Structure to design on (270 residues):
């Protein structure tokens, strides 16, 4: 199934960029409203289903959470590091980074003023896992460099993601992605491991139409096997890169049917 999904991802790219929500949902903070709301909700103010919600009677136990597909539809993703005093950057073109997220828990946001001012770590966070990553057409010094993610069960495993409620007074909307592990074979076997940080980006016509993650430029918790001072930007120094969600069950989907584009390369079987 993972291979099937990976193969289908490029199909969603062109159409995903045109996924548009009703205007009422585009104003920041208006979608999730009321006294008791979940951290992540749809434009209809319904909670995104998580793994902990029991299916209807007869279906069985939990584990049927929402899936989300994130793509860098707004610009490049560029990873920079400083090696012997020189800043070196490698990059991925717009629309070629894919992140598959499975939503595990989607708790209620804080209700009282005391809860908003004292958001305990993890209590008011939507949590899940990035179960696959496909960074396609990555280049190192202008040369194609395949990038491999370690999300394999039994090895590093899925990367855990946490999205903090916007109702928290301290660090509202903060996003953390832990257990990150990437391998760049032609870049002197470079490995990048650790934690990525960013903040939630509300649905917007100027940014992510369906919502997404704005990555911090400085990534001090990301460790490199070669070099130091890791930074992530959109191809322009100081400009943040985005991972925009383009599909999620029936909560979010491309308005126009995906189409196949010409592919570079092929995979054969004997």
């Amino acid at each position: 199934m993972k291979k099937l999904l990976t193969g289908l991802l490029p199909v969603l790219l062109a159409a995903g960029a045109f996924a548009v929500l009703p205007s009422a949902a585009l104003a920041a903070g208006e979608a999730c409203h009321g006294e008791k709301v979940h951290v992540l909700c749809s434009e209809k103010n319904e909670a995104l289903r998580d793994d902990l919600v029991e299916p209807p009677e007869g279906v069985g136990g939990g584990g049927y959470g929402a899936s989300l597909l994130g793509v860098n539809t707004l610009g490049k993703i560029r990873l920079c590091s400083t090696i012997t005093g020189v800043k070196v950057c490698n990059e991925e073109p717009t629309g070629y980074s894919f992140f598959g997220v499975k939503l595990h828990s989607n708790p209620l946001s804080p209700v009282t003023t005391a809860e908003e001012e004292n958001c305990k770590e993890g209590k008011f966070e939507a949590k899940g896992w990035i179960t696959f990553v496909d960074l396609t057409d990555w280049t190192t010094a202008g040369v194609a460099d395949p990038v491999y993610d370690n999300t394999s069960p039994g090895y590093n495993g899925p990367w855990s993601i946490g999205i903090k409620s916007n109702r928290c007074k301290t660090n509202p909307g903060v996003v953390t992605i832990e257990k990150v592990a990437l391998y760049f074979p032609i870049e002197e076997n470079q490995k990048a491991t650790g934690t990525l940080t960013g903040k939630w980006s509300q649905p917007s016509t100027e940014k992510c139409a369906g919502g997404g993650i704005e990555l911090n430029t400085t990534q001090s918790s990301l460790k490199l096997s070669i070099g130091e001072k890791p930074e992530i930007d959109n191809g322009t120094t100081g400009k943040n890169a985005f991972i925009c969600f383009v599909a999620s069950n029936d909560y979010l989907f491309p308005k126009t049917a995906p189409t196949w584009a010409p592919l570079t390369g092929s995979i054969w079987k004997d």
